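Worked example 3 (structure in, sequence out).
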């Protein structure tokens, strides 16, 4: 039971959308970005060990689709603090009933949504406005050797990016395409 978040399930097993409930007054509002007590049902005994903040300057930029292999697999809580993004999450878990399916969600500074993405999912987004700021809470430290990505333009995924892609990192553009025998990752 949560007072500060409306916890919504999605069509992907174990992927939840949190709608934060700001407490407003004449000054503005206060909202919880995370709460270990109120999110106990989906967070369990994990720990937040790293918090990242990114700025993406130009509308149309794609970052993703990123994940870390076990034993550095991580749950992440992803929120947009400035601007708006078309956010995409793909279930890569071996044996999952929703394996290789994706979920898209508009995240914006105004809609107060946070994606609670469990271990074994890839994540990415396209910016819909200039100067988008994202906040990430991670349950595993960054491990460059365990980091991997899916190609955002892989036709096996057919992600419906809403606008022409204006920019991607060299690394993201070089992510391999999914091979026919790909059976998923261990969460
Ligand atoms: C993610 C990360 C990157 N880095 C470094 C690596 C690189 O030199 C620089 C920029 O990293 P990237 O290009 O991977 O940044 P970016 O493309 O923004 O990576 C992010 O993408 C989205 C989609 C996610 O889901 C995040 O978890 C994260 O993977 O920062 C860290 O030092 N610590 C970190 O935790």
């Amino acid at each position: 039971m949560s007072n500060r978040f409306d916890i919504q399930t999605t069509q992907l097993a174990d992927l939840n959308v949190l709608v934060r409930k700001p407490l407003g007054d004449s000054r503005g509002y206060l909202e919880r970005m995370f709460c270990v007590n109120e999110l106990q049902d989906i967070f369990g005994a994990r720990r937040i060990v790293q918090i990242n903040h990114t700025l993406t300057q130009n509308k149309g930029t794609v970052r993703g689709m990123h994940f870390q292999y076990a034993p550095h697999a991580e749950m992440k809580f992803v929120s947009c603090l400035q601007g708006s993004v078309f956010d995409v999450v793909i279930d890569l878990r071996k044996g999952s009933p929703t394996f290789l399916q994706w979920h898209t969600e508009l995240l914006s500074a105004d809609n107060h949504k946070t994606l609670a993405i469990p271990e074994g999912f890839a994540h990415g987004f396209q910016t819909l406005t200039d100067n988008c700021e994202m906040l990430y809470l991670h349950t595993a430290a960054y491990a460059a050797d365990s980091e991997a990505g899916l190609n955002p333009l892989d036709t096996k995924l057919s992600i419906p990016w809403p606008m022409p892609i204006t920019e991607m990192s060299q690394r993201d553009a070089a992510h391999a395409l999914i091979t026919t025998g790909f059976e998923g990752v261990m969460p």
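Notes: The radius of gyration is 16 Å. Residues 5-173 form a domain with the Jelly Rolls fold (CATH 2.60.120.10).
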